[in-house]
Amino acid sequence: MAGNTFGTLFKLTSFGESHGKGIGGIIEGVTPGLELDVDFIQNELNRRRPGQSKITTPRDEKDQVEFLSGVFDGKATGTPLAFIVWNKDQKSGDYDNLKEIYRPSHADYTYDVKYGIRDHRGGGRASARETIARVVAGAIAKLMLRQTGLDIKAFVSQVGEIGLSKEPDDLTMIEATPVRCPDPETAQKMIEYIDKIRQEKDSVGGVVSCVIKNVPIGLGDPVFDKLHAKLGQAMLSINAVKGFEYGMGFKASSMKGSQHNDEFFVKDGQIKAKTNRSGGIQGGISNGEDIYFNVAFKPVATILKEQRTVDKQGNETIMKARGRHDPCVVPRAVPIVEAMAAMVIADAWLLNKTYRNS
Amino acid sequence: MAGNTFGTLFKLTSFGESHGKGIGGIIEGVTPGLELDVDFIQNELNRRRPGQSKITTPRDEKDQVEFLSGVFDGKATGTPLAFIVWNKDQKSGDYDNLKEIYRPSHADYTYDVKYGIRDHRGGGRASARETIARVVAGAIAKLMLRQTGLDIKAFVSQVGEIGLSKEPDDLTMIEATPVRCPDPETAQKMIEYIDKIRQEKDSVGGVVSCVIKNVPIGLGDPVFDKLHAKLGQAMLSINAVKGFEYGMGFKASSMKGSQHNDEFFVKDGQIKAKTNRSGGIQGGISNGEDIYFNVAFKPVATILKEQRTVDKQGNETIMKARGRHDPCVVPRAVPIVEAMAAMVIADAWLLNKTYRNS
Amino acid sequence: MAGNTFGTLFKLTSFGESHGKGIGGIIEGVTPGLELDVDFIQNELNRRRPGQSKITTPRDEKDQVEFLSGVFDGKATGTPLAFIVWNKDQKSGDYDNLKEIYRPSHADYTYDVKYGIRDHRGGGRASARETIARVVAGAIAKLMLRQTGLDIKAFVSQVGEIGLSKEPDDLTMIEATPVRCPDPETAQKMIEYIDKIRQEKDSVGGVVSCVIKNVPIGLGDPVFDKLHAKLGQAMLSINAVKGFEYGMGFKASSMKGSQHNDEFFVKDGQIKAKTNRSGGIQGGISNGEDIYFNVAFKPVATILKEQRTVDKQGNETIMKARGRHDPCVVPRAVPIVEAMAAMVIADAWLLNKTYRNS
Amino acid sequence: MAGNTFGTLFKLTSFGESHGKGIGGIIEGVTPGLELDVDFIQNELNRRRPGQSKITTPRDEKDQVEFLSGVFDGKATGTPLAFIVWNKDQKSGDYDNLKEIYRPSHADYTYDVKYGIRDHRGGGRASARETIARVVAGAIAKLMLRQTGLDIKAFVSQVGEIGLSKEPDDLTMIEATPVRCPDPETAQKMIEYIDKIRQEKDSVGGVVSCVIKNVPIGLGDPVFDKLHAKLGQAMLSINAVKGFEYGMGFKASSMKGSQHNDEFFVKDGQIKAKTNRSGGIQGGISNGEDIYFNVAFKPVATILKEQRTVDKQGNETIMKARGRHDPCVVPRAVPIVEAMAAMVIADAWLLNKTYRNS
Predict the structure, then answer these.
(1) What CATH code would you report for C5-353?
(2) Where are the domains of chain A?
(3) pLDDT tens-digit map of D28-81
(4) To the nearest whole angstrom, how far is the Cα of B223 from the nearest Cα of chain C?
(5) Interface test with A, best of C6, C15, C118 (most A CBs within 10 A)
(6) Backbone dihedral region of C17: left (phi > 0), alpha (psi from -120 to 50 degrees) or beta?
(7) What is the spatial distance between Cα A115 and Cα C32, in angstroms, rounded to a whole number?
(8) Contact: D80, B116; criterion CB under 8 Å
């Protein structure tokens, strides 16, 4: 299986299955001498963890990261930073009934056809538990980028049909509710809706939005590695993501050039854009304005309702998932979106250093 | 400048600027012995060419591809297939007034900050003329994939606020109108609208949709190189693209799992999905159903209206583009979207061969 | 730090330091369904291990490999195969006196200048213990290649000035002596010589030769990835290697074309070469004849004699290594050379599948 | 065919066959703003060109480089620098008799087995004419590295059995004779010997040595991308190369640690090594001392004598090459060795910038 590495200079190569020994990875490109703020890294993992509130699954996995290399006296040496989060509390038994069954809208069938073998326990490599490795690498990327002043904030802007009616005023409110929507009123509606969905034994999708402030000008590389193209790949590689748009996104397709263009002006001797419909990127390169984008998540495929499906032998059957499952994973996806964004930016930031003339 | 290569096994490395000697590239991974159907390749280029109709720019560039290597007796030898489309008919003079000016929502400013130097004539490397290289590589990819029976069809599904009201019935009608919308009635409305926009000296955005039929099962690689993630990067790397969604896309975010899941059944001994809301990909791997996706284009930034901007010296000024410019590039983007899709699929198809046990 | 990955399709990304938690890696490109013959893998590790005999260091590290992912029911699933060999028995204290000292002909100084920080315990990332990861990956590569009938055999052909006087007759005798020289008489001389060097508190270099039989025709890729160029990089990346030659090697430089060329003839309807001065590779591609090459190792830099050096503060000083050190690492390098060869071949073998027309 | 790209950040992707339209490539990673000293680049090509003197082939190919992109007003813009050297004066007819024949020790047979198709004219992609692309890219790399003061000098140290008896005193004498050996007396012997070989209708091998002075400390990346491992791959990828050694090379294998180690001392407050047996690299990273290495070339396979071989149909036959062929290519390999060294160093130099903390 190819495709386990993300990034060119700041690179994560990840490994692990949901019910194997653990999830981990190797991070390359870490700045030598970087202080490894372990509390910060662990906190990012905790944000991803299930069991944070009544609206997420009650599995209290207490994902603790163990670094295996690349650290000495609390600092990154620059050598590969390997890590693992050991799997605990997995109930493989919950999945015994799925051994022979292809769950609808899961990767069971495609893995079996492609590889001819599959660790069927809990999704195996296709499990969303794989995103643990992303969150660890993203936390390291955030630590590396601290010196630039860059700030990445993702939040839930939509759950089912409940969405924010306008840009949020106050991003400090994101973590104030378990649903991670910065508008308290909308957050409350979302929480109630998710609870209703849980009672229906169903699941629901949503949208995570992200704003990146204080971006250095000049990040990103035309032609194929435009900054937003790498952000797009990064987000679309997260489980359950079905769409990505930045700046005006799909709305731009119904606009006129005279409405969409961001005119320049001069402020305090600095060239600035009056508007930021472009979303902080021109020609694939950051222009110093805020980068913002939306990521669409489908409802998770695992629902506790009965569904019709087939087994490996090609017999039609009825299945019903067991175990503990989030009715809406979007709030837990917030730190994952941030992590992927941080990785993309850190990679572009390292690459950008190579253009310096001295 | 990094980022000029797309693909891992089927690879395009592109070069060229809009007003330099030409646009070209090197294609690697071509199947040795492949018949190079030059007419087909040239026809793909013609589809991209400006000056095809009154709704596109009247520059008749007659882009002719010249192969520089990798061909012998009309067949690809498998060695690097280098090619160039020589630039002709460029009127660099049209751009002299832009030498010192940063055009709004163009890459002028970000290139200058990032690289400290820029070929300002007509967009240089950031020009959409760069997509010529993609169309040539995409045509080769299509030739390679012919043996699989795979069929890629893109079309215009929206121009400004005019969109298809339902899935098109007949994809053979795509090329029937210059706007490349398969519904004749909608196409006519689009044409009239684009004409109006031209008279307003403005531009307008749109959406290109794409359907891929007869996809072999098993293409694509989890985790980071999911087939849709590579498609997303591919599409987002095209000039003016602001968004990508596949399957239900952003609509999936307001759906429930019980509405979105594709249940399996058995038909003629084959496992099939009853519905295809997933868009032909599960867990990043093609499942044999149709792949479909949408690509959102912003209105092109170059408009013939006056706009306020600044020059390199930081003085505010007024600019007005000269020359010939498409008010809506979306119809010409159709072959580009197809080309990028073909490249992604060909790459995944080659990689998939490495999993065979013998 | 870049450079921790070897291979394109069959890939090892390694991590670890000699006195950190362990040495490990992630292997990608493993054939799904491959039986993981754990005894075989462990045996390869045992061949590399110190403490195998009186001529190697008495550290009995009992390096046991633990697989962290990619295995299910004893088979590789094709997903990333992560592993670790936990460090035990390290006496970091042995290195306390080296904290401030740059050991002659070690990587201490260059790491400090390059990265500004270094795990000084026992060589850190620059330790030969890093080769553990290579041996594990090489063992997996050998398992994958079993179906081809390919056979890789490395042996010691020279220790100091004691060398084989002719091609060895019987490669089954390699493991018969701890020095891994297949000629018993020469082996005995080498053993005595190494013992003498140990008593002198010195070290000595040597040459490892390798023969690969039953190589499929067609492996390797011109231009830059010629099979022997990748073998060369692979071997030169092993600690203490100073030279690589294949076929006639440096001797070819004093030969005439009429002496060196391998004429073709036909045997049983098969095209064969009468001689094999080329070493089994033409134009960077294997031709089915035996591949053979030599790898030159310098004497290990760590000796128990006094040496003059400088410390980090730039003061001249006298140092003397402590602890247990091999006077000649060349016998232990034999499985490492085989492992790297297996990785190069497995990578080329996977890549070669992509050229198939169907 | 894979393997046409060399380098990670400073990258050459090459194309072309000996009797196709030309040889060229795309260079990425060029410093934006670099003055393109066209005379220097052309002069490097002239050094590689056949027909420079009576000891090389009389084909006067006048290889002129044409840049296709990436240049504006005489400066590199940093965008991909594409170039071509058009083929002229090829006499394909000289090769008609070889169409059905596998020349001994050529790549004819392996290409045919691997790819099933081959441009048989003059070696096609396997021709040494491919090295033109390397020389152009190497010239650009040298221009980029000028600011570092780095100096790369290769020379012929051996032709057949005639070699330098000691390190050359004066590297300015390299270009003084057509054989590019800096010792005039040895050079004269080599010239006479090559002339004799020509009369015998035979060919002869040789050794190119290279010294790199003023190398910045810190270039190169452990573990797999050690500076000497990349140099090794680079050199071994040149046509006809059979071996590579650096520092003491194969001689190191018969030395003791106490003889080989380079002790440190302090000079003018700088840490220096008393000796440089290591060849300027420790742990894969440059240490500021001179890098030196040797590259062994076999005699070219094409000789004007009769040889026995087989044809594609498997019939034994007698062949005799026609046309103009160098009896000894080693003098012309000098600029190619320098070019590859420059590319390796430039790549490591760019990568090294990413470790800076600011």
Answers:
(1) 3.60.150.10
(2) 5-353
(3) 999 999 999 999 999 999 999 876 666 666 555 589 999 999 999 999 999 999
(4) 10
(5) C15
(6) beta
(7) 6
(8) no
